[in-house]
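Recap quiz, item 2
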Amino acid sequence: MGRPGLLGTWILSALLLAFVQVEAAPEVTGVSRLGLVLLPWMASGLFPRADGAVPFPSFLALSLPLLAIAAALDLRGGRTLGETIQLIGPAGLAWMLWAKARSVGGQQVGYKVCWGLLVPGSAALLLALGWAGAGAPTHAVPQALGWLARLNPLVWTWAATRSQGLVEAGLDPLPVLAAAAVLVVCAWEHRARSEVDP
Amino acid sequence: MKVRFALLWLVWLGAWAGPLQAGENRRWLATYELEGPLERLILEVEGFGETVWSVGLAGGERTTLDLPVPGIQGTPSLDGWASVPAPRVTSVPKGASVVFAGWRTPQPGEPFFGAQDLARRARPPVPGGDVSPGAASLALALAALVLGLAWCHRPRTALVLGLVAGLGCGLLVLTRPTDAGPRRVLEGQVGALSWFEVWGRRGRLVGSFERVEVQPAGAPLRIDVGDEEEISAPGRALYGLRSVPALDRYPPLAEVWVRTPRGEWSGRGAWSGGDELLRPPVEGAAAPGWLRGQLPQGVGVLLGRFPGPGQRWLRVIGFLERD
């Protein structure tokens, strides 16, 4: 992602923050600002790497002021430090792991396939299952498809953004982190193999 | 006797669930017999929050206390309060002598017994300004964006800049001054011995109240009972109502509005209070809408704003202007 994409992400996350500030509806007041601001950064940070992309540290640097404002607003708005850490801890770690996998093998086909399947693919499947009324599927196929969404860091972060969202969705951070860690290992191995056997 | 009690219960239930009941009382008194050594006591009511009593008792010291708790599970039945479970107790040190002696009756916060109904009173608006980022932090974030975009191909410099700007933004939001304090409305009827005071504040109320409500309803509360009683629900609007002695003379007011028994409003500017005559009607802003709400018809009313930086207001019902 180049500078225009970076600027777009910044504007999007600032708009989300502004929306929650202005909109005082009860369903919005329980939402974590930190989670909302993090979502656009996460989504664009996972995107398969293209030539001329901004290095991840610079990408992270631009997100930090808005994330800090959102976290401080959460704390001022009643969220405890523990709740904030419960959100940013797993979400931030998953983001870093994905970013590492992306920097190591972001241009590899494997990364692009994993990204397509686990990020937009699984989110779309989850949405489709919800629309089809399979919120608690009993059949093996929708269950397996639904399980794929449990590996998606964006789905986890979105659920953690809403109060009680993780409990309602029955989500755990471990599958998300495990999937991201596996992705990093695979990207390293693939690169090592291609360096040995060009 | 049972019939009388049943009628009493029905009337109470009606008062409790009636249309004027805007919120749920979040301060109930439970009686405890305590014996030291006792350092701290935590009373927890599931779904409502907890009370932390930290006054402490020395070894062998005994006392009976009415402790406020943030809710009750269920409603009292025909048998009285027996069906309402006691709060869950945690004592420090563990195993200290703490005996639940029942719920206090009558509860001072219930409208039927004390007529202390918050729904009939003017509630001061509680600003939600506690959770706004402020211009300084937004300006810093924008400056960091411009510099970050310029230096985005120097990752280390950009990261240091982002960390410093992030820390600065976070601190600027966290250290923004909060509201000036509680908003208060003193209200009473001419000739009554006891008046009411309604306090409204976001996040925290300090003082002893007979009735407490929280908006949005259902938020867990924490009540700390020490030298003072402190009720907290971060980010939520808290309202407390308490009885105060009636004023024996009108205080100086920065701004006054008067309504005649026929319903004609007029602004009167500042007033030095006491027996002084009010100024003739002046052009100016009308009284705030929330202050004019829930007023009885057909009687004179005086509304006023106390001087000074704090937000304190006065409502006198049955006020008749001297000629």
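The longest strand of chain B covers residues 229-245.
Confidence is low (pLDDT under 50) at residues 7-22 of chain B.
End of item.
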